[in-house]
Amino acid sequence: MRKPADIKPGEITPKDAYMNRRRFLREMAAVAAVGASAALLPSVTQAGQKIPHVRKSPLSTGEKPTSVQDITSYNNFYEFGTDKKDPARNAQNFRTFPWSVVIEGEVKKPAVYQFEDFLKHFPLEERIYRLRCVEAWSMVVPWVGFSLRDLIRRLEPTSRAKYVEFTTLHDPAQMPGQKPGLFGAGLDWPYVEGLRLDEAMHPLTILAVGLYGEIMPNQNGAPIRLVVPWKYGFKSIKSIVKIRFVEKQPLTTWMKAGPSEYGFYSNVNPTVDHPRWSQAAERRIGEDSLFSPKRKTLMFNGYAEQVASLYAGMDLKKFF
After folding, report:
1. What's residue 173's pLDDT?
2. What percent of the chain has pLDDT over 90?
3. Does the pLDDT value for residue 211 go beyond 90?
């Protein structure tokens, strides 16, 4: 004779509930695995801390980098003052942790990234790039960062996304240059910059989180900044808190302040002078001796071979 079943039919778990529970357990296991691997990563969030697992990039220039002393003490960061030494003096107590970057606009996957997310989820490289200021001085900076296009691909821009707009932090309590009554009051804060989508997707364009192998110093744009090496330095916006994908060309801060002097593209171009000075030559910081000649400025800051095709057929004097 057959033994009666120990489980009554009414006590049997429905198939849908069983499968949902299995799915839940799989997802929880995945979350736990991510958390465990993240816990193995060192906590690097403060300026001066070494960034691990940084790869060397074949896109780096072979030029000798400017000294860390010059890079960190000679800066334009008007949020902290207009003198070149003001950022190093006034940004010492600038709070860069916790820090988040909002991604919005014409993307299928809007998101909010914590600073640590950029360190964990994107491969970091050392990119030694020439930096050319619109004021006709230059440096060579060993940035640590990742290609902006890696982030853009993850976000999946819609067909309406033609430009990328970047916004920096607006916090007059921490950034004295943003306070009314100072020079910064003449600018429309927060600082806004922008790129055409194909410029943002170019392999040379990076989001930088460090320099000289360490977390970015406050005065250089901590904790995350844009670096576009073929454009004048003011295009490489610092301390980013928002990235927005838009259909129309953004009105940037310096275009608004001086439209006859600062164009949207702002490509380094020795044949197009600033209204108040020549752009044909530059002074390399660190080569300031009496006998050091000025360097000849290179078209697109020496990156013409890589980026000139982006502007094929454009009048670069009109679209400066």
Report:
1. 96
2. 80
3. yes
Distance spanning both ends of the chain, measured CA to CA: 94
196-201: long-range pairs with CB below 8 Å, 24+: 196/162, 196/163, 196/164, 196/249, 196/310, 197/152, 197/157, 197/161, 197/162, 197/163, 197/164, 197/245, 198/310, 199/228, 199/310, 200/148, 200/149, 200/152, 200/164, 201/148, 201/149, 201/152
Q: Give pLDDT tens digits for 257-290.
A: 999 999 999 999 999 999 999 999 999 999 977 6
Report if pTM > 0.90: no
Q: How far is CA 44 from the centre of its chain?
A: 17
Q: 15-19, 194-198, 254-258: which range is least confident on average?
A: 15-19
HSE of 28 in the Cβ direction (CA atoms, 13 Å)? 6
The Cα–Cα gap between 167 and 242 comes to 5
pLDDT digits (tens, 9 = 90+) for 219-239: 999 999 999 999 999 999 999
Rounded distance between C-alpha atoms, residue 17 and residue 31, angstroms: 21
Q: How far is CA 49 from CA 6, 118, 199, 210, 218, in A?
A: 63, 16, 31, 9, 12
Distance CA 46, CA 31 (A): 26
User: How far apart are the C-alpha atoms of 142 and 76, rounded to whole Å?
Assistant: 17
CB 143 within 8 A of CB 226: no
Complete DSSP assignment for 222-271: -S-EEE-TTB-GGGS--SEEEEEEESS----HHHHH-TTT--SS-B--TT
Distance CA(129)–CA(138), nearest Å, equals 11
